[in-house]
Structure formats: structure tokens, C-alpha cells
């Protein structure tokens, strides 16, 4: 059996590549978040916490999402370094702004909850994957997931999945059962995308 070894010298991403990846990843995440918000759905992670807070308070999702991420940057700096932390801060800011901008460019008159949740899960998952592969995250639980993978070699998707389940359970009192079921399916797909595409040692860019 032939074993393919990684190259001895790995060329890191250029600065412009990382910058573009942050924009692309954040755009994909914010689009998925917009779709979930359009059906009054919920996501996992801190995005889910932000959704629940928004439904309870009426505050802007973007503002809530940005603010509740702030405490997690301490862990990011201590464990994952300033570069990762700054990239994550930028990504979170872009997601926060993007989620508020989408309604100004597209008007959704009719949307199937199941379709929206599936599309949102895939979009958010791919967006997070782009961020992970460029030394960033979506903040919050994503920081914990990235740290667990870096420190304990536990797949980020599994860690994110466990935290997502906790948030979804907390959503039972606020979200319509059918919408919640759709949201759970979307969350499962989100974590499936990350689990099968982001494994330690398999990406050398």
C-alpha cells in the first residue's frame, strides 16, 4: 500500500488569501444565519444563543452575536495566540454586519423551513470550514472547538456538535417544534460538513 506523506515544506497561505477567506467564510455564515432568522429558526453554538436572546429581547442579532463573543477572546489569546484571535474577531464582526445587510439586498416572500434549515446548515458549515482552514473561527464555541482539536486532537465538528445539542435543547421553550426539528437537521448537517472535512493533519495549506 502506498503511503502519501505531506510535503516537508508547507507553503502557508498568503496574507491576501487569509483576508479573502475571512470575507468568504463570514459571508457564507451570515447568509445561513439570515435564512434561519427568516424562519424564526435557531442554530447551535453562540449563534444559537444570539438567536434566543434576539427572540426574547428584540435586539439586533448582529449586535448580540458580536457582544457575547467578547469573553471568549481571552481564551483565544491565552491558548491559540494573537493571530488566531485577531482573525476571529474580524470574522465575527463581518458575520455580525453581514447578517444585518442581507435583508437590504434580498426579500424572501416564501421559504420552506426545511429547505432554509438545510441550506443554512450547509452554508454555515462551509463558512466555518473556510475560517478554520485559514487560522480563524466563528468565535465562541468555535474557539472552544478549535482549541480542543489543537490541544486534545478531538475533531472540531464533534465538540461543536455537543455544544450545539445543548443550545438546541434550550430552544424548546422558544421555538416552534417543527421549526426546531428543521433547525436540528440543519445543525446536524453543519457539523457533518466540519467533521468530514476538517481533521488534524489532513490540511497543510
Automatic annotation (TrEMBL):
This is YitT family protein. Its main location: membrane. Pfam families: YitT_membrane. The lineage of its organism: Bacteria, Bacillati, Actinomycetota, Actinomycetes, Micrococcales. The keyword Glycoprotein does not apply. PANTHER family: UPF0750 MEMBRANE PROTEIN YITT, UPF0750 MEMBRANE PROTEIN YITT-RELATED. The keyword Transmembrane helix applies. Coiled coil: none annotated. It comes from the Bacteria.
Amino acid at each position: 500500500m502506498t503511503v502519501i506523506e505531506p510535503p516537508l515544506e508547507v507553503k502557508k497561505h498568503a496574507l491576501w488569501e487569509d483576508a479573502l477567506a475571512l470575507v468568504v467564510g463570514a459571508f457564507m455564515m451570515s447568509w445561513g444565519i439570515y435564512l434561519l432568522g427568516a424562519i424564526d429558526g435557531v442554530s447551535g453554538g453562540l449563534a444559537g444563543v444570539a438567536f434566543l436572546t434576539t427572540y426574547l429581547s428584540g435586539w439586533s442579532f448582529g449586535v448580540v452575536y458580536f457582544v457575547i463573543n467578547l469573553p471568549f477572546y481571552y481564551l483565544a489569546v491565552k491558548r491559540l495566540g494573537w493571530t488566531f484571535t485577531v482573525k476571529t474577531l474580524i470574522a465575527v464582526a463581518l458575520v455580525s454586519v453581514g447578517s444585518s445587510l442581507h435583508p437590504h439586498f434580498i426579500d424572501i416572500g416564501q421559504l420552506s423551513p426545511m429547505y432554509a434549515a438545510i441550506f443554512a446548515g450547509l452554508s454555515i458549515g462551509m463558512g466555518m470550514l473556510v475560517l478554520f482552514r485559514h487560522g480563524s473561527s466563528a468565535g465562541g464555541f468555535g474557539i472552544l472547538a478549535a482549541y480542543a482539536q489543537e490541544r486534545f486532537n478531538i475533531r472540531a465538528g464533534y465538540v461543536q456538535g455537543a455544544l450545539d445539542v445543548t443550545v438546541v435543547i434550550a430552544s424548546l421553550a422558544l421555538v416552534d417544534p417543527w421549526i426546531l426539528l428543521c433547525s436540528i437537521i440543519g445543525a446536524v448537517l453543519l457539523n457533518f460538513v466540519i467533521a468530514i472535512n476538517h481533521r488534524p493533519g489532513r490540511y497543510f495549506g
